[in-house]
Records
---
Amino acid sequence: MSKPWVLDTGPLGRLTHPSPNAEIVGWLEGQLARGVSVMIPEIADYELRRNLLIEGLTRSIARLDKLKTVLPYVPLTTDMMLQAAELWAKARQRGHVTADRQALDGDVILAAQAAAVGGRVATENLGHLARLVEAHDWRIAEAEEE
């Protein structure tokens, strides 16, 4: 069985747009048809939701809420946050800066959430994530699996 996918904010945002991108919808439907779990991590929900709220995008917020009833939701836990802190420190020790030192750094939290569920990240931003956890550009991942 394939590892589950954990959605980064970019693909999640595409799925919650009032007119969702046909390519991401096809990718999601294809994954689910093959029995691959696609999960919404709490950190991606947070990052996307705060932007939708500040812009007043209520239709997208409603779509996000609906999607959370269909796809498994991965809430943050203390263990995940401890793992995120370790990932952040190790990346910095290797010279890989993923965010400002004072920033919360959603990428390491997302990586910790993916690791906790034995998953891989579906993203559009491989730069930081691929150094932390298994991550793939969702647009290419579809072709790689066929």
---
Amino acid sequence: MKNFEEAKKRNFKRLEQFVPVVARVHGEHHPEFHDVHKIFDEINAKVKKAESEKPELENEFKQLREITDNYTVPGDVCESYEAVYNMLSEVDKAYHA
């Protein structure tokens, strides 16, 4: 739980900023990112609702791993896209630690 809290604090503010921008910029060529955006919004809502408890996010992280091919960054995207996948991967790993 401690690892997840730390990863959440380290990444969620930036994810809240980056995810909508990356969806807008890359969504046309990478429509799967719209699903990433939707799932991140679900995760974020559950995390905020749970406050200090650990929310049930198993299904959301499973979906993210499937959609992103285990957070594999496409070759034709910007650093922000890559940063989103790296942050999501870190939060996912911390959740399961």
